[in-house]
């Protein structure tokens, strides 16, 4: 009976090791996909790291500027459509906002 228990415990240990090896292989594949090794190599050089972060910051800033411009244009478009509905209080308020925005766009401020 003790021999049967050893065989069972060896088999479960082998299956556990197989699961661990599978997990390690999955982690290795995921790390290779994101190219972590090349990023870590760039961290060693402070100059490369600073240049990399500078360009990432520029790209993020450009993306935010474009995104806010598009969202602002969509917002103004819908506000102009709401003014056309002639809702008394809301329409006057929105028409004032649209007028102020258009005046600022025309004066170049």
SSE map:
Elements: H1 2-33, H2 36-44, H3 46-84, H4 88-107
Helix pairs in contact: 3-4
Number of strands: 0
SS-based class: mainly alpha
Sheet with the most strands, sense and barrel status: none
Give the integer mean of the pLDDT values: 80
The sequence of SSEs as H and E is HHHH
Percent in strands: under 5%
The unreliable regions are none
- Report the C-alpha radius of gyration, rounded: 31 Å
For the record, give the distance between the C-alpha atoms at the N and C termini, rounded to a whole number: 90 Å
Q: Which percent bin holds the helix content?
A: over 70%
What's the shape? Answer: elongated
Specify the number of helices: 4
When the domains are counted, the total is 2
What does this structure look like?
By secondary structure, the chain is mainly α. The chain has helices spanning 2-33, 36-44, 46-84, 88-107. It has two domains: 1-34; 46-109. The chain has four helices and no strands. The chain starts with a helix and ends with a helix.
